Amino acid sequence: MPSFLKKLSRRLRHPFNSRYAFARLRAYHTQPRSLEQVVDWAMNFGGGGYMRVKTMQKPAEITALAQAVQALQPRLILEIGTASGGTALIWSYLASEALISCDIKDMTPQRPLFSRFPPPGSQCQVSLLSGNSHEPGFRAQVEAVLDGRPVDFLFIDGDHTEAGVTADYRDYKHLVRPGGLIAFHDICEKQPLASNQVQYLWRRLKPLAEVEEFIHDPQQSGFGIGILRVPDEGAPDL
Ligand SMILES: C[S@@+](CC[C@H](N)C(=O)[O-])C[C@H]1O[C@@H](n2cnc3c(N)ncnc32)[C@H](O)[C@@H]1O
Question: Which residues of the chain have pLDDT under 70?
Answer without folding.
Answer: none
